[in-house]
Amino acid sequence: MPSWIETECKLLLPDAAAARRIRDALGTGPIFVQENHFFDRPEGVLAAARIAVRLRSEDDRRRLTVKGDELGRADSGWSRRIELETDLTRADFETALAEGLDLVPWIPRLEAAGPQADRSPALARLLAALRAAARSGRLVRIDGFSNRRERLPLEMTDARGILEVVLELDETRFPGDSPAGDRIDYEIEVELDAGRLDPDRVESALRRWLRELGVAGVLPAPSKLARLRAAGTRPA
Questions:
Q1: For residue 83, which of 6, 40, 77, 144 is within the disulfide window of CB 3.0 to 4.6 Å?
Q2: What total of structural domains would you count in the chain?
Q3: pLDDT per residue as tens digits for the range 167-219
Q4: What distance in Å separates the CA atoms of residue 85 and residue 222, rounded to the nearest whole number?
Q5: Exposed/middle/buried for 116, CB within 10 Å: 0-12, 13-18, 19+?
Q6: What's the predicted TM-score (pTM) here?
Q7: Is 94 inside any structural domain?
Q8: What is the distance in angstroms between the CA of the first residue and the CA of the last residue of the chain?
Q9: Residue 88 domain-assigned (yes or no)
């Protein structure tokens, strides 16, 4: 699997109690507070192409990430998509938030994350869409949310042996305009190293582990941005 393809298992938990049950079973792990900001043209050309452009702060790190549409995702808890990423300085990050994101200087760095030898039609279309959007001027911030992520090692066993993964337990706060205020979702993610683990095997073992833990009502999780847009908490 090319390095620019992100494959992960993502399951939406029913409530905070389910998240607590997982944490009680696995103990505590490193916690990362992430602030996520999404950018597009005012007319939403990247959203229409199912491309997400995100700036994220996490501790002292600042990153620009571009994600493409799902690549043949089945009706399951795992997803596969193009992901291109590069680090930003704090100054560049703050300038993008204050003045809009100029993609032009960053596209060569993003393109370098998908080496020419691994080029595909889907990657070429994504890069072309980024260039077209960049030619029209700076992207504007369209939405965002905060996320608390805890990374927890998990060892599972199935008929084929032991599966060792890192489970990411997310508590995501989506901004709300209603009297009820913000909405909080709870989710688990497992990122899969390219070619190391079979996604279906990981999902099956993970669901079995959750059932044995007494966690019910788990569903495949759409992306956080898709859930934010579907909720209509902000204009897309």
A1: 6
A2: 1
A3: 999 999 998 765 567 899 999 999 987 567 899 999 999 999 999 999 999 99
A4: 20
A5: exposed
A6: 0.91
A7: yes
A8: 32
A9: yes
